[in-house]
## 1
Amino acid sequence: MDFLRSKRKSANKAKERLKLVLIHDRTDLPPGVMEDLRDELIEVISRHIQVDREHVRIQVNQDGRDQHLVAEIPLKPASKGRGR
Amino acid sequence: MITITSGKGGVGKTTATANLGAALAAEGRKVCCIDGDIGLRNLDVVLGLENRIVYDIVDVVEGRCKLRQAMIRDKRLPELYLIPAAQTRDKSALSPSDMIRLTDELRGEVDYIVIDSPAGIERGFRNAIAPADEVVIITNPEVSAVRDADRIIGLIEAEQKGPAKLVINRLNAAMVKRGDMLAPEDVLELLAIELIGLVPEDENVIVSSNSGSPIVLDPKSRAGQAFRNIARRLMGEDVPFLDLDADGGLLNRLSRLMGRGG
């Protein structure tokens, strides 16, 4: 399957573009809102726990015709000084 | 009662309606096709019945004729009828409840009613899906058609007419093979609904509509074969999908996909 995909050219582009467009069509979620959502999530979670801001990823995944908002928020390791 | 719709115009709704109606009639079922595109009547010319129109659907709804008088009988397939769209009147002449009343009267008379929906998501589309028991969405393997199909699928779910079934029309196997056309598996993955037909691009579709003879009546056409298969699937038969690719690659990939989906 993978070697077939790597041969794809414009069809592959079409699929990737459609994936994103359909997610926004289905959820009424403009692409710009995702960035705001990311920043606000980081802010809220950072109040309680240290977050690795550079590697936070937030996206909408498709599962059949359902959409899931998936946030991957890596945490910073506890600093040694805090060990009890 | 089956409604054929697509969202986008020009993907082959009218051709599909004409051919599915003709194929069901050729299988011995009594079928009435309804042109739901008020103001832009076309199903009559594709079926070659344009010279026999006396009354249209708005005449029936407004009581100027009986339902039977507006049903044009196809001479090649005596079990096939057409109720044409009105050509000159405004689109508000018909409402969803008019459609439900009219088709309720028809239900007792025929085995299948196939409604050709207009493009778009406005009144004509709502009229066409109001009476539907089953909705078939036609799309092409092309970004704008797939996007519009997705919108329509969402609207049909919201109207509780789903789940709709999908026909991918105008597949060009050579283009899919060289990676320049969305493959059926891509479209299915994006839209996530049940596939009921794959129709290859076929010049004979234009030839047959030129002469007003549905392509399902041409035993040699591959598109005709594809539409005959869809008709049999609509009748509940389990028909394998056409091998669109000479070396079977596409079919193999697709059957794997279907197997995975259950």
## 2
Amino acid sequence: MPLRELVCIRCPRGCLLTVDEETLEVKGNFCPRGKDYGMKEVSAPERILTSTVAIKGASLPLCPVKTSAPIPKGKLFEGMKAIAEVSIAAPVAAGDVLVKDFLGIEGVDLVATRSFKKEGN
Amino acid sequence: MSGKVAIVGGGAAGMAAALSALQAGAEVTLFEKGSALGGILNQCIHNGFGLSYFKEELTGPEFAERLADKVRDSAIDVRLDTAILSIGKDLSIAYESPKGSGTLRADAIVYTAGSLERSAGAIALPGDRPSGILTAGQAQLYLNHYGYLPGKKIFILGSGDIGLIMARRLTLEGAKVLGVAELCPYPNGLNRNIVQCLEDYDIPLYLSHTVTRAYGKGRLTAIELSEVGPDRNPIPGTGRRIECDTLVLSIGLLPLLSLLRPLGLRKNLAGQIEVDDSLMSSLPGLFMAGNALHVHDLVDNVALEAETAGREAARMALGERASGGKELLSKAGDGIGYLIPGRIRESGEEEVLFRFRVRVPNKDCFLVFSQGDKILKKIKKMSIIPSEMEFVKIPKKLLDFSQKTTIEVKLCH
């Protein structure tokens, strides 16, 4: 049976996993997150994407953002292109949904990760 | 005792220390030189923070905001845009802000000023002095706060976590990251960052390599990459030229201690401020936490450590600190890079939490804590690496305070 060795990236602990590529059985994980990561990494790898979007009227020109859930690894650059089109205005609160169903992926939103007040001119 | 605690620095450590000092009954003033709370977390827009402290995966700004919201909703006196000019042996703090200058006489201080990146000067890089050479944290600030991509063809020296994170971030923003060179024969960042920042994007990692020359008039045009031997010196004749316009340095952090220098605090052999198990330095009333004490890999641990320092500072300020009893010294033995704390008090908490790092990666080994011939604790380790900090708790009742024998931790096979 083909086995694949992986370092789990779900937390800084970095467990060394062994995943059976056919049965998707995971060994070496310390917690359930590792099992989930091992299975997905072998079948359909995904990552949370973090970046910034332009913001007007805030103390900085950029507001940090993230995808509310992991997206397919192959769609990261497409995600960056979509993020480049987004422009918002202060005020914004961390957790605010900026794009619903990001890249058309149901249930995954692009959300702000920092709050900005509206600054006076 | 009026119970005044002053916190120097409003990053993760400072905010956590302030909240815990307040909870322990102190009157707390927090000084921050920047115009926002959160420190370096605000530019660390990637995820992976908070898993142990908030039981939730957060980005840096989200982690910072959770703490900052609690601070803002509390009775903590927050002084933003305020520079500390000096700290006196009498625990007085001279400060200056756009609103004016003044002095605050504290009953205890928690020093949480963080760390600084080692810069190009620290590695005496031969060759030209063009623009285009900057630290990973500078690149992160320019890109994540202001949207400036520092270059298009980038080489990274040092495999510290910030360098790895920036390799991914610069790649996603359209730059070509040509490679990461690491002087050591092993990576210095966390394993997960090697995977998700380098392997995900096919960025080569050159172990046992360093940059031996910079080329360029005005702007960087190329670097010379050389292999290093076991002595970590470049091997002559192995140099190759790599065309690039930017060199990003991720070659380590150093605790920011300039304000403490006049106090003549005792240091350990690694150059860190020596503290006891309550995180108090050799100046009674001055406590240390976070990257100013020792450089952490996880902010979650920074916050936990700072909670201890804040609580202990409040006890000191309120005259509630347990006193009496003897003190033992502790030291880093074979294979251990540093050990915190350096002194253990018989009074105070019932357990002592040791924090340390090994010098080099090891497999199938033991961590052994001893006092003279007596073994206090022996821990089997399948694998241990310098980039991951170790934590070991030992009950004080196992220690013999009647003799002066030093506590030692070492790595054995």
